Amino acid sequence: MPAKRPPIPLSRERIIDAALHIADGQGLRRLTMRRLGDALQVEAMAIYHHLPRGKDALMDALAEHVTTVHVEPGESWQESARAWCRASRAALREHPGVLALALTKPPRGRAAIAIREQTDQLADAGLADAAGAVRALRAYVFGAVAVEVQQSGWAEPSGDENEPWRPPSQGGGSPGADTDFEYGLDALLAGLGRR
Amino acid sequence: MPAKRPPIPLSRERIIDAALHIADGQGLRRLTMRRLGDALQVEAMAIYHHLPRGKDALMDALAEHVTTVHVEPGESWQESARAWCRASRAALREHPGVLALALTKPPRGRAAIAIREQTDQLADAGLADAAGAVRALRAYVFGAVAVEVQQSGWAEPSGDENEPWRPPSQGGGSPGADTDFEYGLDALLAGLGRR
DNA sequence: ACCTGAACACCGTTCAAGT
DNA sequence: ACCTGAACACCGTTCAAGT
C-alpha cells in the first residue's frame, strides 16, 4: 500500500506552472481558481495565501511570465535585437493559452524591467532611437505570433478532447513560419538602422 | 406621467453594440450575460434566442465585428494595402475592450471572407504572393495596435471609476503613434514589393 | 416567435477556524 | 505561516412556461 507522500509545499512558481498548463491545455476560460486548486492538490482558497490579489494577480503573473525575456548583448545592436526577438517569439509560442493576456496587459514588474534592459542594451550598442526600436520590435513579434497561432488552428480547446497542446516547432505551425519571421525581422532591422 | 414606451425589439446587432459598449467601458471580464441583459432592458435568457450558442457565440461575433474590414481597390496594390491597414487599425483601436479576442480568435465568417477578398484584391492588382502579403500586413496591424493600446494605459478598467473609454484619436494615444504606424507601413510595403 | 422565472452547477472571494 | 470549510454573491445555461 503506497504511503501518503508528504505534500509538496505550495509556491508562487508551482501555481504559475500549473496555471500555464491548464490554460494551454484547456483554454483560458477554463482556468479557474478551483480547477487550479485541484491540479495542485489543494483547496482553491490556499492559492490566495501566495497570490493575495487572487485571480487578477494570477493573470498578471502569467502575462509577466510569458513576456519576460533576457538576452546577452550581441556583437552589434542588430544581433542583440535579433536574439531578443527570437527569444520573445519562442516564449510566446510556448504558451498560446495566455497569448491574449501577453498581447493585452501593459508590461509590469519584471516584464517592464526586461524591456528597459533591452532598450539600454540597444542604446549602449549605438542605436539612436532605442526606445522606438524596442516598441517596433515588440509590435513585430506580437503580430507575428498572433497570426501564427491563429493559423496554427489553436483555439480555446473544446474541453471534450483531452489532446494537450504541442508547440508548433514540429508539426503544428506551417513550415514557412520560421522563415517568414526571419525575413520580416531582417527587413525591420534594416529599416530601423536607416531611420 | 411618461408613457411606457414600447420596447425596441432585441436583435443580434443591438446585442453586439451593447456588448462592445460594456467591454470597452468596463473590460471584457465584466461583460456578463446578465449585465448585457440589463443594458438591453431584458432578461439575460432572452439573448440566447438571438445567439443560440450563448456567450461563445457572442465572443465570436465581437471578434468578427471588430475584425471585418472592406476597402475599395486603390490605384495600385500598395494603395489598396495601405487603405486596408489603416481601416483595420481604426477598427481595432475603436474597441480596445475586445482587442484580446480579435488578436486571438481565428478569423471566421465575414472576417474570413474579408481577408480572402483583400487577398484577391492585391493579387488582381499584380502582387505576386498576395496571401503572404496579407498575413504580413495583418501581423503588422495587430502588433502595432497591441503595443499602442498597451501604451495608451488602457487596461481592464477598475470598475470603481466610471470613466468611459475615449478612442486615442485625440488625447489618449501618444502623438507619434500615427506617424510611427505610417513609417513602419511604408517600410513593410517596400519590403513586400521587393520580395 | 420571442421573452420570462425558476432552477442547477459552477465561479471568485471573505472570513473564521484549524494546525 | 499555511491551509481548510462554510458561506455569499454572482456566473452561464437549461427548460418549462407564458404571451
From TrEMBL, chains A, B:
SUPFAM superfamilies in UniProt: Homeodomain-like, Tetracyclin repressor-like, C-terminal domain
DNA-binding region in chain numbering: 32-51
Keywords of this entry: DNA-binding, Repressor, Transcription, Transcription regulation
Keyword set includes Repressor: yes
Magnesium listed as a keyword: no
The species this protein was found in: Streptosporangium amethystogenes subsp. fukuiense
Residue span, HTH tetR-type domain: 9-69
The protein's name: TetR/AcrR family transcriptional regulator C-terminal domain-containing protein
